[in-house]
Description:
Oligomer: single chain
Shape: flat
Number of helices: 10
Amino acid sequence: MSTVTKDVLYIDVDDEITSLIDRLTASDHKVVALVLPKRATVLQSIVNMKLLKRAADEHNKHVVLVTTEAGLLPLAGAVGLHVAHTPNSKPVIPKKPDGMADEPVNVDEPELTEEDFDSQANAAASIGALAAASDNEETIQLDNEPEVPTGAESKPHKPKTPKAKKGKDKKLKVPNFNAFRKKSLLIGGGLVLLLLIFIFGFIILPKATIAIKTDSQDVNKRLDVTFDTSADSVDADSGTVPAEVEQTQKVATQSVQASGQENKGNTATGSVRMSTQVCAPNLGNDPSDVPQGTGISTGGKTYITQESASFTYSGGHGSCIVYSSQKVNITAQAPGAQYNTQKSADFSVNGRSEVSAAGSADGGTDNIIRTVTAGDIESVKQKLSSQVDNSVKDELAGKLEDRGLYVIKDSFNTGTPEVTVSAKAGDQVESVNATQKTTYSLVGVKKQDIEDLITKKVDEDIDTKKQRVLNTGLDQAVFKLQNQQNNSAIVQMSMDVTALAGPKLDDDQIKEQIAGKKSGEVRDTLKNYPGVTDVNVKLSPFWVTSVPKSASKITITYEK
C-alpha cells in the first residue's frame, strides 16, 4: 500500500528563506504545504520565491503555499507556485502579473515537464488529491529503486539512498545579504579610518624645529613704544604700534557688621530742688537764676533742666543766708535704664559750683539697636579695594591670544572703581554692604608688528649688507608702563630688548633646501652656510624621521 505523501509545514514570522528550504528538502513527502502566518516577510521577495521554487524542483517536490496574503499571489504566479487558502482547499496557480519575466533572474530554474507535475490538470485539485495522485505515480522513481518483477517473492530490503548529483542535489546555499552588507561597511569604515590616521599622523602632525647657532652678536636697545588702538600701521619714527584692547567689567561685593549701637528705650525723667547760700561780706546780693537747659550730673550721668530755677530766702546759717528753688523738672540726656537714680540723689550743677541740687529720676528703659558708623563704611571700602581678582588678567590674555595677538601683560589696567554703599552713617541696620564695579583692560598687538619695529631700530646699529636680525628678543623683552589712558586706548611704555644679529641668511631658501631631508642631511647642508656653527634638528611627533615637505611646518630659530 502506498503512504500519504502530503506534508504540512507551519512557518514562523521570523523564519528565513534558508530555513524554509532546509525544511522543504528534509521532508519525506512529495507534496509539501507551507502554511504562512500573516505578515510573513520571507516570501514577499521575488528572489526568495524563485529560490523556493528552484529547491522544490531540484528535490522533486510539489509546494503549495497556504496563505490569504494578497501581496504574495502575484509573486507565486510569477514563479509558478500553487496557492491555497486552507490546507484542504483546492490549490491554484495565481495569474502571473503583466511585465514580469518568466524566468528568475540569476537563478537557474529547471522547467517542469508534464510528467513531473501537470499544473493545468492539477490546478483544481485539492492538496489531498495531489497527495493521492502522487501515490499512483509509479513511473516517477524519486529513490531510483528498480521495479520488482510480477510474481517474484517480495523480500524486505533496505532502501538505497539516492546519490547526490553534482550541481543538482547539493544543499542550496543562499548568501546572507545583511551580513555581507555589515562586513562591507566595517571593512570600508576601517579603510577610511586607516586613511585618516595616515593623513593625520604623517601629513598634518609632523613638524620640524631647526635651531641654528651662528657667530652672532647681541644688540641691546631701549625703545619708547606707543600702543595705539587708532593706528593702522607701524610707525618706526614715532615708535607707534597698532594695538587692540580687551576689556571686562567685574562686580565685587563686601559686607561688614554694623558696629554702632543706639538705645531706643525710654528716657528717664524726674525733678530736683536746687539750693545755695550767700555769706558775708556778700550779703544782700541774691543768687541769680539757673536757666532752663542747664545740665546737672550725678553718678557720671547728665540730665537737662526743663525750666529755669529761681531762688528765694529759706533761712539763715551763721553768717550765711540760705536760698532754695522750686522743684525743677529734669530729663536724662539719653535713653536707658542706667539714668534711673535713687529716690534722693545729689546733683552738681554745671557752671554753678555754688549751687547744689537734690532729687531723682526714673522711667528709663533699654532698647539697643545696631547702627552704621562712618568707620564701618570706610572698612567695607578698604576690603573692596584689596580684593583683586588675579584671574582677570589671565582671562583677558586668553581672549587676546585666541585672536592670535601678542599680549603686553604689563599694560594690564584697573579702571577707577564705582563703589555703591547700601547704608549711610547712623542708619539702623545689622550690616552694611558695598558693591564695586571695576573695568579691567589689557593690550594685545600683532607679534609681527612689534618685531618689525624692533628690527627697524636694530638695523640702525648693524651693517645690513652683511648682517640681519636673527632674533628680535621679544619673548625676553622687559616692558615698563609710562602713561596709560583709563580706557587703555593709548598706552605708552618703554621696552628693553636684546636682539640677536648675525649672518644674513634667507629663511625661505633654507626651508626649501631642507624640506623632506633626514636630520643628518639637514645638519650637513646648513653647516655649509657662512657664519653657521651648529645645527639642532627637532622632529615631532616621535615617529617622524624626516623634515616635512611643507615649509609652513618648518620653524627656524637662531641662537648665539
